[in-house]
Write a structure and sequence with these properties.
The chain is α/β, with parallel strands linked by helices. The chain has two domains: 81 residues, no CATH class; 212 residues, Rossmann fold (3-Layer(aba) Sandwich), CATH 3.40.50.150. It contains 14 helices and nine strands. The strands form two sheets. A seven-stranded mixed sheet has the order 5-4-3-6-7-9-8, with helices on both faces. The chain has a two-stranded antiparallel sheet with strand order 1-2. It is elongated, with a radius of gyration of 22 Å.
Length: 311
């Protein structure tokens, strides 16, 4: 078993994979149909793959099963050495309390976006029967987190790309029971998030608009192959040299969707904090500020639609 991990580790090191040992372990566990804890225990006890594939009753899996598992591992390693994202190979990724299904055509949610979600959760828990809108929803990571973590939340999610929408719909179906258990409601639609007609029935009613829009500057092509070659361009690039064009369109749409006193939470590039604060203030938002993620980089904007002033 240790030899299999070592072989994978060395191959991924040669390919320049940033976390070769971790990836080799995860890929082997997936190929063998066990979890990482079981694999680590087998490694600690110096067990072989054949021993790990022996079931609890002591009966050994068929030789063909073991051969297929090892073939699967070799295939996984070749794909990862080609810098295909680990999450695509495994077919899923964990995000906060969710296990999301992922594959080619959908943006892979990042850990830093979990801080964006937390800002949204904190805001919604202060509102009775809150209504939230998730613009540019992708895999559903943000909106589904809100729907499962905030009891009684009504969440409306919008995604324009058909392939990303397909993955978002799969994840919504997988979380249906969890959403129902906390008394929430989640609906996903295929539409342009910046279009004035999208969710126009909710104009002036949303307590929260939250978004992780495309924001990478057009000339800032990512150096990491997993991002540059695999993440959908539609989910990456912000439509202008500074990457702010699409985020500003989200600012415009959110101002209309929000109820007076409602909150916008929007992720942005680490270089865009001052520009996003300025853009929000220009559009009439108040108390606009940028917040840092766990790595200390500017990561997301919060801004409020002004509360209605009675004469």
């Amino acid at each position: 078993m240790a030899e299999l991990v070592d072989r994978g580790h060395r191959l991924l090191v040669q390919a320049g994979v940033p976390t070769p040992l971790n990836d080799a372990r995860l890929l082997l566990a997936d190929a063998l149909g066990c979890d990482l804890h079981q694999l680590d225990q087998a490694l600690l006890l110096d067990r072989t793959a054949e021993e790990l594939l022996t079931n609890e009753g002591g009966r050994r899996q068929a030789d063909g099963f073991q051969s297929a598992a090892l073939d699967r591992y070799r295939s996984h390693l070749q794909r990862r050495a080609g810098r295909e994202p680990l999450q695509y190979i495994l077919g899923h990724a964990y995000f906060r309390y969710l296990d999301l299904r992922l594959g080619q055509g959908v943006f892979i949610p990042r850990p830093e976006t979990e801080t964006v979600v937390q800002a949204g959760v904190d805001a919604l828990t202060r509102v009775d029967h809150p209504l939230a809108v998730d613009l540019c929803s992708g895999s559903g990571a943000i909106g589904l987190s809100l729907a499962t973590e905030v009891p009684g939340a009504r969440v409306r999610a919008v995604e324009v790309d058909k392939e990303a929408y397909r993955w978002g719909a799969l994840n919504a179906a997988a979380q249906e029971a969890a959403i129902r258990e906390v008394g929430s409601d989640y609906q996903l639609m295929l539409a342009d998030a910046a279009n004035a007609a999208t969710l126009s029935d909710l104009d002036g009613r949303a307590d929260l608009v939250i978004s992780n829009p495309p924001y990478v500057p057009m000339d800032a092509i990512p150096s990491q192959p997993e991002v540059r070659d695999w993440d959908p361009d539609l989910a990456l690039y912000g439509g202008s040299p500074d990457g702010c064009l699409l985020p500003c369109r989200i600012l415009d749409r959110a101002m209309v969707l929000l109820a007076p006193g409602g909150l916008l939470v929007m992720e942005h590039d680490a270089s865009q904090g001052p520009a996003m604060v300025a853009a929000a203030l220009e559009r009439g938002y108040v108390r606009a500020r940028t917040h840092r993620d766990l790595t200390g980089r500017d990561r997301y904007l919060t801004a409020w639609r002004p509360a209605m002033v009675l004469g």
